[in-house]
Amino acid sequence: MKKLFLLLFFIASCYQISDAQNTATLDNEKVLEYYQSQRYAEAAQYLQSIYKDGVDDPKALTQLAYANLMGGKYADAEKYYLKLYTQNPTSLPVLFSLADINTRRGNESKAKSYYQEVIKIDSANFSAYKKLAYLTKEDINNKKISYLLTANRLNPIDADIVFDLCEIYFKTGAFHKLKQTLEPALKADSTNLRLLKIKIPLHVAEKNYPEAIKTGEQILGYGDSSTFVLNNLGKSHFLSLDYQNALKYFLLISDKSADNETLLYNIGMSYRGIKDYKNAIPYLQNAIKEGVSPKIATYYGLLGDSFEMTNKNDDANNAYKKGLQFENNGSLLYNIALVYETKLNDKKNALTYYEQYLKTIDEKQQPKLIIFIKRKIEELKK
């Protein structure tokens, strides 16, 4: 795009453009100097000092539009491009520029409309289909897929289009189409890391673990040791029952990123695979901890209270006790004791839970509460 407008500028610079209402003459060398030093805002300011607001000469408008666009003055650039658009609504460079400006200004709907005008004029315009696919944000969207398919048909080796299309194929389980789309692009660029990364989960999905490992090691050789690559290598070794190598890659991930449920589980299972049960235990315990919401005890507390409000007292206590499995929560112990004492008339169990609750109270912070619970315990023992 930039080269196109520079070419237009040089064509325009062959002419002395002047406004009948303005005696100032354009200094083409000065404008060229601004462009070469990338001082586009200054170029725009200079051009605006030469041309009147009502200028309609297409060469002048092109210069004004381009300088403002490159100088980041998008509103002014759009104003001049719209004048050019009015003069020639089928100009592809003008349509692309208007679409680009609207994308930058956040008006993606308007940008799409300009790209759609492009493909009405030129139904084989790859760049327009690529831009339309990019502007259609939803992954699994019929329009997006249609734009990607057309762009891929027009240029089957464009890595960006191939990557986006393959991601959709992977998510929808269309592995045969994924391979057909990926192979030409990889043949054209065999070291493209984005495309190579698609191969690993594809091989894993096809249970072709040796190829997944081979591809993963190839990517590592190119210097990419990202979590994605290490995780897929670990998974491939694990599914090949090579637990020692699986563990090696999973542990590399744990060294460079925060632990999570799946990673902890994989490490624990890899330790089990090599019969190192001692090391498996803490990882599996932490996997359980990560897999459970820290608020689950509170949720069970609220559930129990809701049962109480409907006089389902046994259900209430069962919910409170379930919450205790996730957190030794003092309020849950107190609620259980209270239900046993006041609603189920079960002094023995009430006493047991009051005693447990007493152990959770901080003497320094809640001395009066300790006195109150101790009195309750004494009363229940009578």
UniProtKB/TrEMBL annotation:
Residues 1-20 form the signal peptide. InterPro entries: TPR-like_helical_dom_sf (IPR011990), TPR_rpt (IPR019734). The keyword NAD does not apply. Keywords: Signal. It comes from the Bacteria. Gene3D superfamilies: Tetratricopeptide repeat domain. SMART domains: TPR. The keyword Signal applies. SUPFAM superfamilies: HCP-like, TPR-like. PANTHER family: CELL DIVISION CYCLE 16,23,27, CELL DIVISION CYCLE PROTEIN 27 HOMOLOG. This is Tetratricopeptide repeat protein.
